[in-house]
Amino acid sequence: MPAVAYSSNPDAKSDLQRNLADYHPTVWGEYFLQYASESM
Fold this sequence. Notes:
0% strand; mainly alpha; 55% helix; (+)-delta-cadinene synthase isozyme A
């Protein structure tokens, strides 16, 4: 897991890219919103 190696190195924080996955925001966002609203 290279992300763990990068996060444990304080000098690499400026080079770390958080958005590694190119999922469209609605792929998971709306699913979880719908699931949360159904469970209430």
